[in-house]
Each structure stands twice: as structure tokens, then as C-alpha cells.
Write a structure and sequence with these properties.
- The structure holds two protein chains of two kinds.
- Chain A is α+β, with helices and mostly antiparallel strands.
- Chain A contains five helices and five strands; from the N terminus they run ββαβββαααα.
- Chain A has two domains: 2-77, Beta-grasp domain (Ubiquitin-like (UB roll), Roll), CATH 3.10.20; 85-149, DNA polymerase, domain 1, CATH 1.10.150.
- Helix content of chain A is 32%, strand content 16%.
- The longest helix of chain A is centred in the C-terminal third of the chain and has 14 residues, at 102-115.
- Chain B has three domains: 3-206, Aldehyde oxidase/xanthine dehydrogenase, molybdopterin binding domain (Aldehyde Oxidoreductase, domain 4), CATH 3.30.365; 212-284 and 342-417, Aldehyde oxidase/xanthine dehydrogenase, molybdopterin binding domain (Aldehyde Oxidoreductase, domain 4), CATH 3.30.365.10; 495-709, Aldehyde oxidase/xanthine dehydrogenase, molybdopterin binding domain (Aldehyde Oxidoreductase, domain 4), CATH 3.30.365.
- Helix content of chain B is 32%, strand content 23%.
- In chain B, strands 10-11-8-18-15-16-17 form a seven-stranded mixed β-sheet. In chain B, strands 13-21-20-19-14 form a five-stranded mixed β-sheet, with helices on both faces. Chain B has a four-stranded mixed β-sheet with strand order 1-2-3-4.
- In chain B, β2 and β3 form a beta hairpin.
- Chains A and B meet through α1, α2, α3, α4 and α5 of A and α8, α10 and α19 of B.
Chain lengths: 155, 725
């Protein structure tokens, strides 16, 4: 076991874990930030997506030993009141069915909009690679466009 | 209120409540002091188990059935709220735990939740409303008939007086409960049929603990389990020396053929599990997909002992007519792969069990765990979290039983979690199967239809009284089951998810052979079944036609497509619901593009339009996804697809840009909706691919054989022998 000090949602946390522990399990089991979900463990589905600085990162396959002082943002840290433009857009489009993948979808969309404030359908196709097992893709697409009109890339 | 501001004990208490499903108004309850929330519930006016109103006017509505993404946690409370006449924005929704006495059949399965709750829960709401009205009428000393209700108030318009439900609650609680209540006329609905958002959106979008996997309890261990690497293997022995060296590993226990590792975090449990040295032995056949295929090939040439249906004389008709079509269709094993991997929390001690986790059948969980533990059912509580998908996987209780046994043996509260690889090797899969069709055509119509199905562990692989039964003079269905130790179970729209693909694809072959428009053929056949029905029908012809005509309008079926676009049609009846779908596809640079999909649905009264539309859109994408990409093959009992890198799922880029859903407007009672949208999409898309390429897809998933993507001349109408897919 080793000690790591992490910057998650603008707070410092020190954890004692195995060095190869994926960031996902540190978030869920050590920090009790359970909004980031486990889906596949091999960076395929994207349910575990967090922001690593401003980039989308699949936390299930990234060891805690590699995090360093980089800034990690989870769904819990996206906004104080749950009113980030992307969260608002997801509510307005009533996207969720089971809802399990949506935190990862939202974080991926936030990262996309930070880089590209008004994405086209083709941009969305390329960036939004997370699996939604319920098949809410049509509403996710709508919500990303809606978030763009609300300046979803702005923090 | 942020989690950080709460003490750990308090946090756990509120989390549990949250996991149980509070959302709207949660803050009100959460902001109440310790014990206040419970007191508020206890002193409230609660004429039945489904709702309560406290003195402050706070209305709490209970969602009795498990929420697996099908929207019943929103739609069922809407039924109560409609008749109660309250402000939907101000209600608290709470998920019930298992309590069969209070809530009856708490199941998520068979597309039945709304069907079974529609009348009783509107009556429950109307009963409460009648009591509140009676209390107000007494207070004002006016006739009940002069009182009306609106948004949580009783009004006496003649005198301009009004009282809030909270003010009337204690008086209403003392009145006798009426035995008969009048329900609203559909024209007066304020909620039913409207677009209401998912009540858990806020929690979902802020990452609050909501799912079984999010359960955290004092003293709980995280558990990973080693289980047989193949169907047909059993555990001889294990060595946990290396496992116990891993930091955080606290215990290792065996139950039957599984070995559970208890640790202080998920990752340490997984490392411990992976470090186990396990010795397995063969305890049964180690089956492969190739064995199944060989057996299916034989079976589909044979008649079953009892036909599912036998109208006219199929053999004579097939023997005496010149135009005979014959095709064999095939479908693979599918995994359910709900996004939330299998898990369950169990705390078994002192002859009691506290269970909390994803299940579509909490009642079955209690029965099966009681049996496994050898304790009475009344000693078991089952909490029901929101669930990351079900699709039929959680109709099995294996996860709860395993967790309970591990907790019991280890004498500790545990949360068992499977990896995705565990899930894909340990599912109760959608059975694979082969389906042989023969048709005789005469005088420009279909005169004989013979379906011979063979599927894994399937008592009946047909739906014998479904269309085209009734519209064909000679019709026979035969069904064979191939027994296997590869465990199978219901998968969204069981049997129908296969039959729609095979039957509606073959029907498209018949339409081409008859040189008839596929929609016109269906409508002609339905007219024939209406005017001269052959035997009994399981379906209503007018309702069937209602969706076919609607989807033709929606998709502009008779209009012109853009150059390079091709269309396909399918319709199917399941769970008492009629669905017709159209897919428009194009092959662009060798890649299949699904441009637009349309669904017309007749499911009776729609309760929540937003949820219902989402459900049908999702069902179409679910069906498309699996038809396109997904399949499990077995090699000596081992699933060859272990995770989403090989068991592929559709992503945004493959998703049709247009996914349009319309419901036939009707006030008939609701029929099923969670499943019926799925079956028709695979044949609609495959029929469109045939139109585009001339290649008939007879084996799923269609991505496995990309030859259909090579540019070819589009199909011309007419009888045509093309190679098997």
C-alpha cells in the first residue's frame, strides 16, 4: 500500500491504497464519490469517465499512481447545485432511462464542449463514444446540442 | 445539503433513504432533523399504503415496482397524483421496499407494471381525494357535490372558500374509507398522457448514491467471487495462500462452486480473487456453439410431437404448389449485460437477513434466500434500489442468494460485485436457435406457412396464434428444445425478439416473391384474417392495422426516398401491444448507415409520454444494437466474448439521427410497453438492407458477415434465389 494525495473536485484527499488501484475504485471506495460508475473495467463503455484536467478520462483503467497533481473532476464536482449547463440540458431533454451511464455521458459531453463549444453531429459522433445500454443516444445528441446553446463548455 | 456536512452515521442513514428512492422533496425530508422525517410519515393521513399527506400538506407517493430504467418510478406515482389532484412539482416519491401485503406483485417483468397498476392506483388516489373532499364538506357544512379539488386544495367555489389537503389530513384520516369511487374521465387528465420527466433525473445527474452498487454500510466488506470458468465445470479445491497476502483481504470463504474474497476495497478483493489457485473438474458436457448448430440443423427437419398450431394441411399444400420458398434463420446467444454489473448487499446474522440490491423480482429473492439460508421469509427484508438496467437478467435471484450465503458463512455484511467478465460467463442467456420456414404461394397469395423452430432450453419457441396465423389457410408451427447446461433465461421480449426477426424477414421474402409492397401485403392479409379468419387469433386486426397505417404515414412509405436510401418494414404484436416500424438505410463508402427509424405504437392509454417515447426509442436501439453487433459463442463451455471489446455495442456514431415514435391515440387501458418496441426493428433494418444490397440477412448479428456491405445491384422485386446469409 502507498499514500497518494489527490486533487479531486478542487479538494485535497490523501489515500492509502495499492499503487495499481484504478482511480475509479479510489473515487468510489475511498472517497465515497459513487457517481462515477463501473461498467466494464477495460475503458470500453465510458461509465467511469471523469475529467483529467479538461480531458475525458476512463478512470477504470488509470492507476492512482499516475494521477499526481493533475486535477480530477467527477460528476459530483461539476457544479455546486447540479445546474451546470450540461446537467440542465440533460434534465431538459429528459435523457435518462436507467440512468447508470449518464454521469459518464455528461462528463464526456462537458469535455467535448470545453474543446468545441458548438459541435456538429459529426463532432458528437466522434467524441461521444460511451455506451448507453438503454439506447438514449437520440436524446443524448439533443442534450449536447442544447448544452451548446447554454455555453456548456464554460465551467 | 452536501454530504460533507453530514456526520458519517447521518450520511449512511440518508444514503439508505436516498438509495430507497427519495427524490422530489427529498431536501425537505433530508433537512428535517433526525427522526423528524420518520415522524412526518407516521403521523400523516395515509388511507392506503400508496400515499400519505402530512399536516404541512407534503404528499408522499409510493413507487411499488422495481425501477430498471422502464420509468415506472415516475409513471406509477403519476397515476396516484392524477386522481388525487395535487401539484406534481411538490410531491415526494419514495420507492417501496418489498412488502407483498401492502403492494401486491412488485415485479419488473412481462411489460406488466403499468398494466397491473393502472386501475388500482388511480382508485387509491381517488379514494384519498374523496376522503379529503368529505372532510372539507363536513368542515364547511356543504354537500360533497359542491366541492371540487385542484392542486392540493379542496374548493367550495360557491362561497369562495378553500382548504389545503394538509389542513384536512387529520379530519380525513378519521372518516370511513369509501368502497366505490369515481375515476376521472380521460378528457380531464392533467398528468396522464403528458410529458413528465424522470423523477430521479437530479440524483442521476449529480452522482448521488442511487443504485445497488452504490450501497455503503458500516463494517461492510467488498466481495469478489471466483466462479466456474466454464459451464460443466465444478470446483474441486482451492488454495488462498497468495490471496491472503494481499493487503486488505480479510477473509476467503467457499460456498458450493464459488470462492468469495472479502476485502476492504473492491480492487483489493479483485486482486485477491485473481490470486486464488483453483482446481476445477469436468462435471458435465462442455458444449460449443458448433455442437448446438449441428443439433439445430437436424431438429428443424423434424416435426415436434405436438404442433403449436395446425390449420388446414400444410404438407399437402407445400406438396401441390409450384412456388415454394424455404429459408433458414439463425440467432446467437445474447448476454443481457445491464450497464450496472451484477451486485447485491447482504447482511445475514442472528437468523435474519437484510438484503438490498438490483432485482426485478424482490419477492422471488426473499423466497429463494429463505430457502438457501433455511430461515423464515418473515426474517428477511429486501430493499429495492434504482437499477442500471434489467432486460430480464434480474428476473433471476442468483445474485441475492450468492450474496446472502457469503454473508452468512463469513458472518459479515458484504457487497458482492461481479466484473463484466463474470457477468458474460455467468449470465442466463437469451437462447440461440435456428428457424426453418417454408411457404407455398398460389394465385398471387400465401397459402401455406410452416415454421419449425429449434432453440436452447426452450419449451416453446413459437408464438403459434400470432400473425400470420389466421390469415393463412394452411399453417403449422413446430418447436424443439435443445437441452443444455448453458443456462438460459428471459431476455427483453423473450421468444418475440427472435420470432419478429425470423417471421418478418421471411414475410418480406414472400412480399418480394409475390411482387407486392410489404405493407400492402400485411394489410391484405389482415383483411383476409378479418373477413375469413382461419382458427383463433391472438391479436386484434383493427389495432394491428392502426399501427401499420400510422407508420406508413410517419415514414412517408409511399413517397420517394433520397437517392441511395432504401427502406424496410416490419410489424409485430407482443405483450398486448402493436408496433410497426420502418427503417431507412444507406450504404455509404461501404458502411451501413441507419438514417431514420420510425415506430408506430398502439399500447392503449400512454401514461407518461416522455417516458413512453424514451422507452420505445430505446427498445428500437436495443434491438438494432444486438441485431447488428452482439452475439456470444461458446467453446467447450466457455463464453468467447467476455467484455464490450468483443461483445460489441452500438455507439453514438451508429445511432440513427432520426428516431421517431408515435402512439395511436386511445383511452383504452394500457398494455405492455417495456418490451414491444424491440422485436420489429431487426427485421425492419434487415429488410431495408435487402432492398439496398439484394443480400438477405438470415443470421445475426449481421456485422459478422460484411459481404452485404459490398456494393451490389439493389434487389429487384420478384422471386430470386440468393445465397444464404
Amino acid at each position: 500500500m502507498a499514500s497518494y494525495t489527490l486533487n479531486v473536485n478542487n479538494k485535497k484527499y490523501t489515500v492509502h491504497v495499492l499503487p495499481d488501484t484504478p482511480l475509479l475504485w479510489v473515487l468510489r471506495d475511498e472517497l465515497n464519490l459513487v457517481g462515477t460508475k463501473f461498467g466494464c473495467g477495460i475503458a470500453q463503455c465510458g461509465a467511469c469517465t471523469v475529467l483529467f484536467n479538461d480531458n475525458p478520462m476512463r478512470s477504470c483503467s488509470f492507476p492512482v499512481s499516475g494521477v499526481g497533481t493533475n486535477k480530477v473532476t467527477t460528476i459530483e464536482g461539476l457544479s455546486e447545485e447540479g445546474d451546470h449547463p450540461v446537467q440542465q440540458a440533460w434534465e431538459e431533454a429528459d435523457v435518462a432511462q436507467c440512468g447508470y451511464c449518464q454521469a459518464g455521458q455528461v462528463m464526456t459531453a462537458v469535455a467535448l464542449l470545453k474543446k468545441n463549444p458548438s459541435p456538429t453531429d459529426a463532432d458528437i459522433d466522434k467524441a461521444m463514444t460511451n455506451i448507453c445500454r438503454c439506447g438514449t443516444y437520440a436524446r443524448i445528441r439533443k442534450a449536447v446540442h442544447l448544452a451548446a446553446t447554454k455555453k456548456g463548455g464554460k465551467p | 445539503m452536501s454530504n460533507a456536512s453530514l456526520s458519517r452515521r447521518h450520511f449512511l442513514r440518508v444514503s439508505t433513504l436516498a438509495g430507497g428512492g427519495m427524490l422530489l422533496g427529498f431536501r425537505l425530508l433530508a433537512n428535517a432533523g433526525d427522526g423528524e422525517a420518520a415522524a412526518m410519515m407516521e403521523t400523516a393521513f395515509a388511507p392506503n399504503a400508496y400515499l400519505s399527506i402530512d399536516a404541512s400538506g407534503l404528499v408522499t407517493l409510493v413507487a411499488p415496482n422495481p425501477e430498471i430504467g422502464q420509468g415506472v418510478k415516475t409513471a406509477i406515482p403519476m397515476l396516484l397524483a392524477e386522481e388525487l389532484d395535487i401539484d406534481w412539482e411538490k410531491v415526494v416519491i419514495t420507492q417501496a421496499a418489498l412488502d407483498a401485503k401492502a403492494y401486491g406483485n412488485q415485479v419488473a417483468g412481462g411489460s406488466g407494471a403499468i398494466r397491473s397498476r393502472f386501475e388500482p392506483l388511480r382508485k387509491a388516489g381517488a379514494t384519498a381525494r374523496a376522503l379529503l373532499v368529505a372532510a372539507a364538506a363536513q368542515t364547511w357544512n356543504v354537500p360533497v357535490e359542491e366541492c371540487t379539488t385542484e392542486n392540493g386544495f379542496v374548493l367550495h367555489k360557491a362561497s369562495g372558500r378553500k382548504l389545503g389537503y394538509g389542513e384536512l389530513a387529520s379530519k380525513a384520516a378519521a372518516l370511513p374509507v369509501p368502497t366505490e369511487v369515481k375515476l376521472k374521465e380521460p378528457k380531464d387528465y392533467k398528468l396522464i398522457g403528458k410529458r413528465i420527466h424522470n423523477v430521479d433525473n437530479k440524483k442521476i445527474l449529480t452522482g448521488k448514491p442511487l443504485f445497488g452498487i452504490d450501497t455503503r454500510r458500516e463494517g461492510m466488506f467488498y466481495v469478489m467471487v471466483a466462479r466456474p470458468p466454464a459451464f460443466g465445470k465444478k470446483l474441486v479445491s482451492f488454495d488462498d495462500t497468495d490471496t491472503r497476502k494481499i493487503p486488505g483481504v480479510k477473509n476467503v470463504v467457499r460456498w458450493n462452486n464459488i470462492v468469495a474474497v472479502l476485502a476492504t476495497s473492491t480492487w483489493n478483493a479483485k486482486k485477491g480473487r485473481d490470486a486464488l489457485k483453483l482446481v476445477w473438474e469436468d462435471a458435465g458436457p462442455l458444449e460449443s456453439t458448433a455442437d448446438h448448430d449441428a443439433a439445430f440443423k437436424k431438429l428443424i427437419q423434424e416435426k415436434s410431437k405436438e404442433p403449436g398450431r395446425n390449420d388446414g394441411d400444410v404438407e399437402a399444400s407445400l406438396g401441390s404448389n409450384k412456388k415454394i420458398l424455404e429459408s433458414v434463420y439463425q440467432v446467437p446467444i445474447l448476454s443481457h449485460a445491464p450497464m450496472e454489473p451484477i451486485n447485491f448487499f447482504a447482511d445475514v446474522r442472528d437468523g435474519k437477513a437484510d438484503l438490498y440490491g438490483p432485482t426485478q423480482v424482490p419477492g422471488r429473492v426473499r423466497t429463494d434466500v429463505a430457502k438457501a439460508l433455511g430461515i423464515p421469509e418473515e426474517n428477511i427484508t429486501v430493499g429495492i434500489p434504482r437499477q442500471g438496467g434489467g432486460f430480464g437478467r434480474k428476473l433471476m435471484s442468483d445474485n441475492a442468494v450468492e450474496a446472502a450465503m457469503i454473508s452468512s458463512i463469513a458472518k459479515a455484511p458484504i457487497q458482492m460485485l461481479w466484473t463484466r467478465e463474470d457477468d458474460m460467463q455467468g449470465d442466463f442467456y437469451r437462447p440461440n436457435g435456428m428457424y426453418r420456414y417454408k411457404a407455398a404461394l398460389s394465385d398471387n397469395e400465401l397459402v401455406a406457412w410452416h415454421e419449425t423452430a429449434a432453440a436452447l432450453n426452450s419449451r416453446r419457441a413459437n408464438a403459434p396464434d400470432n400473425f400470420p396465423a389466421g390469415a393463412v389457410a394452411n399453417l403449422r408451427t413446430d418447436s424443439h428444445s435443445l437441452s443444455s447446461n448453458i443456462q438460459t433465461g428471459p431476455w427483453r421480449a423473450p421468444t418475440h425478439n427472435v420470432l419478429a426477426f425470423t417471421q418478418e424477414s421471411f414475410m418480406d421474402e414472400i412480399a418480394h416473391a409475390l411482387k407486392k409492397d410489404p405493407i400492402a401485403l400485411r394489410l391484405d392479409m389482415l383483411d383476409k384474417a378479418k373477413n375469413q379468419p382461419v382458427g383463433k387469433l391472438a391479436y386484434n386486426i383493427d389495432k394491428f392495422k392502426s399501427v401499420i397505417n400510422l407508420v406508413a404515414d410517419m415514414s412517408n412509405w409511399n413517397g420517394k426516398l433520397q437517392p441511395g436510401e432504401f427502406k424496410g418494414f416490419a410489424a409485430y404484436f407482443s405483450f398486448n401491444t402493436y408496433v410497426a416500424e420502418v427503417a431507412v438505410v444507406a450504404i455509404e463508402k461501404g458502411q451501413l448507415r441507419i438514417k431514420r427509424v420510425y415506430a408506430a405504437v398502439n399500447c392503449g392509454q400512454v401514461v407518461n409520454l416522455s417516458g413512453a417515447e424514451n422507452m420505445v426509442q430505446g427498445a428500437m436501439l436495443d434491438g438494432l444494437n444486438h441485431a447488428w453487433y452482439s452475439g456470444i459463442t461458446f467453446d467447450k463451455g466457455v463464453a468467447m466474448q467476455k467484455n464490450f471489446n468483443t461483445y460489441k455495442f452500438m455507439r453514438m456514431k451508429d445511432s440513427p439521427p432520426v428516431v421517431e415514435v408515435k402512439f395511436v391515440e386511445t383511452n383504452e387501458p394500457p398494455t405492455g410497453l417495456g418490451e414491444p418496441g424491440l422485436p420489429p426493428i431487426a427485421p425492419a433494418v434487415c429488410n431495408a438492407i435487402f432492398a439496398a444490397t439484394g443480400k438477405r440477412i438470415r443470421s445475426l448479428p449481421f456485422d459478422q458477415d460484411k459481404s452485404w456491405q459490398t456494393p451490389a445491384a439493389p434487389a429487384k422485386s420478384g422471386l430470386k434465389k440468393e445465397p444464404r446469409g
